[in-house]
C-alpha cells in the first residue's frame, strides 16, 4: 500500500463511517456520500496520473458526472422528504419500521 | 405518471441492467447499477405519500452506499493488481468487500433491514420491479466474481434463509412478508453460488417467476394486509383457487415448480458433503413455509369477519385488465407447472 | 515535493474527518470544500492539469451552491460545529482510528510516492490527463453518450421527484 492509496482509503472509510453512524440530518448523510465519491474521484485520477495511462483519465470524468447525478437525486429526495416529513431529520423517517 | 416519462424510466431501468450485464469493466458495471437506481426512484415515489418518499430515500441511500463501496473495492483492486476486470478480481480483501457491497444491494441477511421497509413503502407494481428486476444486475455481477471467500457466502446464505423465515412470522403486512420471502430465496441462491453458478441462476429464474406471479396476484386482489386477502373470493374466484398453490410453490412443495431449485440445491449440497448446511437450510425453509401457509389459509379457507354484503365489491366494473394482469396467466403457469420441465431448463442454463 | 504532498494528504484527511464527524451540514460542507481544494492541490502535485481544474470548479462552482441551497432548506436554529460535545467525541474517535491505522501500516509501504511517469515531461503545457479527457470525445464516444444519457435521466428523475404541490420545495401560498 502506498501512502496515496492509504489516504484515499482512509477518506472513503471515514465517509462510510460517517454515513453509517449519522442519525441527525439527511443532508449530512448526503454530504458523507459526496465525500466518498470525492475520494473515489481522487483515487481514479491519481491512478490515471501515476500510471500515465491517458485513456483512463476519462474514468474520473464519468465518475464525476455520475456522482453529480447521484448528488442531485439525493438532494431532490431531500426536498421531497423535507416536504412530506416536515424536516430532514433522520429520526423522522420512521413510518415504515416493523 | 406521464406515460412518456414512464417509458423513459422503464427504458433506463432496462438500460442500466443491460449495461451491467454486458460489462467486463467495473466502471461500466457501476454505471449500470447507478442508472438502474436512479431510474427507479420516481417510480418508487410515485404515490404522493410520505411512505413512498421515505422508501425512495432509504432505497437511494442504501444503493448509493453499496455502489460507492463496490467502486472503492474495484479501484483498490486496480491499485494493487493493475486491472479492472470483473472476472479476474482476486485480491481477497477487496473481493470480500465487493461481495458484501453486492449483497447489500441484493438485501441479504446482515444487510437486509432496508428491504422490508422499502418494499412496504412502495406500490405493488414497483415492489415487483424492486424485488425481481433490480436483483438481476447485482446477482449476475456476483456470479462473475470467481474467488469469493467460501465461508462468507455460506454464512450469509444460511443467515438469510433463517432471517427471511423468522422475520416474516410476525408480519401482517403482505409486502413485508414478500420482502422476507425474497430475502430467504436469495439466501438459497447465495448458498449454492460457490458450488454451482448454474443452479444459482436457475433458482433466480424460478424466483423471478414466482415473485412476479405473487405480486401481480396481490395487485389484482388489491391486497396489502392479510385481512384484505379474506375477501379475495368475491373479487377474483379463480385466484382464490390458484393463489394457495402459488404460495406453496414459493414455499417449495413438491409438485410445483418452486420445489425444483430447492431440490437441486439440497442435492448438490449433499453431494458435496455439506450435509449440515443442507439440513439447516431445509429446516429453516419450514419457517417460510409457515407464513405461506398462513397466507393461503386466509385466502382460501377463511371468510372475512364482515357480514356478507360488505364483502362484495361496491362497483361491479372492477378493472380486470391492467397491463400487468395480462402477464398473470403466464407467470402463474410458470410458477405452478415448471417442475417436469426443469431438467431441460437446467441444461439450457448450463 | 514530498513534503508538500505529505501536508496535502494530511489536509485531505483532516477535511474528511471534518465531514464525517457529524457536525451541522453548514460545517460539513466546509469540510467538503477543504477536501476538494486540497485534493486539487494533490492532483497538481502529481502532474495533472485538467482533472484538478474540473475537480475544483465542479465542487466549488456546482455542488457547493446546490448543497448550500439545501442547507438553507434544512436550517436549524442552533447549528453545532466541531466544538460541540458529541461532534468533538466523534472527531477524537476518528482521529484516533486514523492514527492507529496509519501507525500499523506505516512500516508496510511498498514503494513510496510512485512518482510521476507522465511521458510528456514537466515542461509541456499539454499534459496526459488533458489528452485522456479529450480521448473521451474521440474513442470513448459511447461512454460520452452514456454520461449524457445519465445526466438527462437525472434531470427527469429530479423533476419528477420534486414536482407537484405535495412534494416540491416551494409552496403555493
TrEMBL record, chain A:
The protein's predominant localisation is mitochondrion
Q: Which InterPro entries match?
A: NADH_UbQ_OxRdtase_chain4L/K, NUOK/Mnh_C1-like
Going by the record, the broad EC class of this enzyme is translocase
What GO terms in the biological process aspect are recorded for it? ATP synthesis coupled electron transport
Listed GO MF terms: NADH dehydrogenase (ubiquinone) activity; oxidoreductase activity, acting on NAD(P)H
Q: What is this enzyme's catalytic activity, as reactions?
A: a ubiquinone + NADH + 5 H(+)(in) = a ubiquinol + NAD(+) + 4 H(+)(out)
Kindly give the Gene3D superfamilies that the UniProt entry links to this protein. Answer: 1.10.287.3510
- Carries keyword NAD? yes
Q: Which domain of life is it from?
A: Eukaryota
Tell me the keywords, alphabetical order: Electron transport, Membrane, Mitochondrion, Mitochondrion inner membrane, NAD, Respiratory chain, Translocase, Transmembrane, Transmembrane helix, Transport, Ubiquinone
Q: Write out the transmembrane intervals.
A: 6-22, 29-49, 61-80
Q: Which GO terms describe its cellular component?
A: mitochondrial inner membrane; NADH dehydrogenase complex; respiratory chain complex; transmembrane transporter complex
What are its E.C. numbers? 7.1.1.2
Membrane topology per record: Multi-pass membrane protein
In the UniProt record, does the keyword Membrane occur? yes
Q: Where in the cell is it found?
A: Mitochondrion inner membrane; Mitochondrion membrane
- So what does this one do? Core subunit of the mitochondrial membrane respiratory chain NADH dehydrogenase (Complex I) which catalyzes electron transfer from NADH through the respiratory chain, using ubiquinone as an electron acceptor. Part of the enzyme membrane arm which is embedded in the lipid bilayer and involved in proton translocation.
Recorded family membership? Belongs to the complex I subunit 4L family.
- The name on file for this protein is NADH-ubiquinone oxidoreductase chain 4L
Q: Which gene encodes it?
A: ND4L
TrEMBL record, chain B:
Q: Where in the cell is it found?
A: Mitochondrion inner membrane
Q: Which GO terms describe its molecular function?
A: NADH dehydrogenase (ubiquinone) activity
Sequence intervals crossing the membrane: 28-47, 59-80, 92-110, 151-170, 177-193, 199-218, 238-254, 274-293, 327-349
Q: Output the InterPro entries linked to this UniProt entry.
A: Complex_I_Subunit_2, NADH_DH_su2_C, NADH_UbQ_OxRdtase_chain2, ND/Mrp_TM
Concerning Pfam families, the annotation shows: NADH_dehy_S2_C, Proton_antipo_M
Q: Which reaction does it catalyse?
A: a ubiquinone + NADH + 5 H(+)(in) = a ubiquinol + NAD(+) + 4 H(+)(out)
Member of which family? Belongs to the complex I subunit 2 family.
The name this protein carries in UniProt is NADH-ubiquinone oxidoreductase chain 2
User: According to the entry, what is the taxonomic lineage of the organism?
Assistant: Eukaryota, Metazoa, Chordata, Craniata, Vertebrata
TrEMBL record, chain C:
Enzyme class label: translocase
Give the residue range of the signal peptide.
1-20
* UniProt topology in membrane: Multi-pass membrane protein
Record GO terms (molecular function): NADH dehydrogenase (ubiquinone) activity
Q: Where in the cell is it found?
A: Mitochondrion membrane
Entry EC no(s) = 7.1.1.2
Annotated Gene Ontology cellular component terms: mitochondrial membrane
Q: Which InterPro entries match?
A: ComplexI_Subunit6, NADH_UbQ/plastoQ_OxRdtase_su6, Nuo/plastoQ_OxRdtase_6_NuoJ
Q: Which reaction does it catalyse?
A: a ubiquinone + NADH + 5 H(+)(in) = a ubiquinol + NAD(+) + 4 H(+)(out)
Q: Which UniProt keywords apply?
A: Electron transport, Membrane, Mitochondrion, NAD, Respiratory chain, Signal, Translocase, Transmembrane, Transmembrane helix, Transport, Ubiquinone
Ranges that cross the membrane = 26-46, 53-75, 139-159
* Entry function: Core subunit of the mitochondrial membrane respiratory chain NADH dehydrogenase (Complex I) which catalyzes electron transfer from NADH through the respiratory chain, using ubiquinone as an electron acceptor. Essential for the catalytic activity and assembly of complex I.
Give the record's family classification. Belongs to the complex I subunit 6 family.
Supply the PANTHER family for this chain: NADH UBIQUINONE OXIDOREDUCTASE SUBUNIT ND6 (PTHR11435), NADH-UBIQUINONE OXIDOREDUCTASE CHAIN 6 (PTHR11435:SF1)
The name this protein goes by in its record:
NADH-ubiquinone oxidoreductase chain 6
Q: Which gene encodes it?
A: ND6
